[in-house]
Design goal:
With 168 residues, the chain is mainly α. The chain has 9 helices and no strands. The longest helix is centred in the C-terminal third of the chain and has 27 residues. The protein is globular and about 60 Å long.
Amino acid sequence: MLKRNKEKLLTLCITDNKENIYRLAYSYVKNKEDALDVVQDSIYKALSSIGLLKNPESVKSWLFRIVVTTSLDFLRKHKRVQPVDDEALDFFIPGAIDVYPDIDLERSLDDLPLKYRNVIVLRYIEDLKIEEVAEVLNENVNTVKTRIYQALQLLRVNMQEESSKEIN
């Protein structure tokens, strides 16, 4: 396939999936501006390396892999430590027990190891098929299935622990 046709295919894929691309980046960097930066960098990288795309049918998973990689690179480069003022720190001091059950899926996802969080985000948040998740992560389909199962088990345990902490 000619480079020009690949560029058109990529452009179409970007416009058709712009919300998904942004949501995927945001799920990693947790900040609107940073997510937009990641999306911009990912699109630039994809357009710059369009000649490397071997299978035009897999342009979506190829682009998603670039977004994931760019997001992870961004996180490595911008490790953030946010200073907390005394007033905010007092708010989080143990002793002030929240009487409302607060099971926070996002916090539980953040606590998962990266290999498990990746498969959960791509499969359930981005609604990719298992084969597409495997392609994005460059893993075997059976590996992805196993990681999804293990990740769901870990999430279940984490959320049960959170629930039992709040009840006590």
